[in-house]
Amino acid sequence: MNQSLQILFPVLDTNSGKVMVAEKINQNQKTKYYAFQFQNQVIPKTYLIEYDNALKKSKHNELFRQYYEMHIETPGNPEIPYLHLFHYYEDGKFLDQKVIDYGKQRQSFNYAEIQLYLKNFLIALYELHSNQIPGRIFSIYNTLVVQERLVIMDFGFGPNINQDNLDILAPPEYLEQIINNKNYIQKEFDLKFDSWLLGAILYHLIKFKSINQVEVQGNSYQRFKYDRVEEYYNYLKNLDHIPCQTTRYKNDLLSFVESLLTCNKDNRLSFEQIHKHEYIQNLELENKAEYIKFYSENQFIKDCEIGITSTQGFQPATSQISFDLRNSFTQGHSESVIIKQEDHPSPQVTRKPIKITEQISNYQEDAQGYPNFLNIILNTPQFNNTNFNIYWLKIQLDCLKCQMLKQTAEKITTILPKYKHPYHQVLVYIIKKMNSIVLREMDSELKSAYFQKNLDEQWEDFLSQNKQNLPRSDSIISYSRSLQSEIAILYNNFETFLNEESTTLSNSVKKSIESDKSQNFNMLNNPQEFYQDIYREEFELLLQFINDKITSNNNLEELNQLKLLVFHCSQITTLFQLETFEETFKGLAQQNQKPQPKDLAQYFGINN
């Protein structure tokens, strides 16, 4: 059978592994799926097939991911990763993305929405628990909203919780166990673990931030991940519960959430107590008596399948995968987050008018002799050779990234001091370093016979024929040296802050900056950190800072524009991919046209 599987774009990383959107082409019929690339190449049958079989018998099977098949490129070749395909929801949106959308609109979740989601979670958790399956890793980040019902995409035994790059969402008693025993494996699961996770989700919907984002020094936040588990555990030890007070909701809801986020497990609500709680009783769940009876008899789940590594029961399918998955994703993430595809960018930002030309003007450097990226972004010629159009778009996207980073650094410099951000110069440093890395990679590609790592004679012809219209290597190098000098000056300005014990910067960011210094800020290190989680935490905290200022200030235009730029900088390695550019930004296209980089320049307000 002639079929192929094409990876369209990454969606998120969760405890189980990477989640992507894939399209299967079978005899000209195209079908989209969620494709899981699990961390472990050999998946225990109980942790997928038996869960799937059990939940198919559930009265509420629609609340869980729908497994389709195991997909491999070469049967029997352990070097090729298995992909497990699940039903794709065309109208689905991850719950954390809905939080982001509401945040942009300064809109809170209303009571009806929170109660609907809470009902869905309680029903789904009962279906899991009654089938001896823990929630364990479910979160706001791996739960879909599909036509106002939820679909939980990750749950159960198997996936490792304790991974350095993951957000800490687990309860304190689990953190204590992994601190005392680094190789700790959960053999018996206390359902109060899921009580805590349910509280974490409600807290996020109410407070618009994760429970592991801790406010320090009044104007900044720390986001704790498992590489700082002892520090976060010590923070929780001093709390009776994670506070969830706000004037936007009534106390009956807020106190219920706090009773779930109680740090002492003995005082935390069990699921029997949850279903007997007045707030839940008022939700009038249909089978509440059944739920209470079950939970009065069941407080733990045992993992009876530790050590099983059979793949019996998988239905394998083989076909040509469109690119090598082992090298395609250098950007890790966590339960959180973090890297999510928006349906289209938010329409809330006012577009600034830009004079657009439709053909290449004579390319010139700017007044300082640096590359004139805007000239390239705003001009979209049509070449006779269709491959040349692809090459030009790739160069435009690289130029757009550089111009966006430049504008973001300028906005941070002028806006954040007004709001007393404690280390805005470090953020400018990070942005300029990112710009330096993009420049270096652009210069390398413009001097190479390889286009996107493939030897390409037409690419060489394109470079030769359009040399006068492309950035010159000497101007790129000149700009890079200027950035290097600016980066060194910024370091000197915040070096004292960097070494203070009270600094809120993560250890990974501090180590990265010290590494830059040891190289005299030449950025010769492998840029993997640019594509990983090193800077993501700082972007997420900055977005939280901006959200807080939007809530309490009237100058919304400048804050919203900065938020827009920071958000796209945080996803720069995924949103500006050549293969997915048109799909990602189709919402910005002119009528009946494909989106162009100039549309993004206008959207971002880039005009110089």
Automatic annotation (TrEMBL):
GO molecular function, one term: protein serine/threonine kinase activity
SMART domains associated with the record: S_TKc
The organism's place on the tree of life at top rank: Eukaryota
Species per Swiss-Prot/TrEMBL record: Paramecium tetraurelia
SUPFAM superfamilies in the cross-refs: Protein kinase-like (PK-like)
UniProt domain Protein kinase: residue ranges: 1-280
Transmembrane regions: none
UniProt-listed InterPro entries: Kinase-like_dom_sf (IPR011009), Prot_kinase_dom (IPR000719), TF_kinase-domain_protein (IPR053083)
Protein name as it appears in the record: Protein kinase domain-containing protein
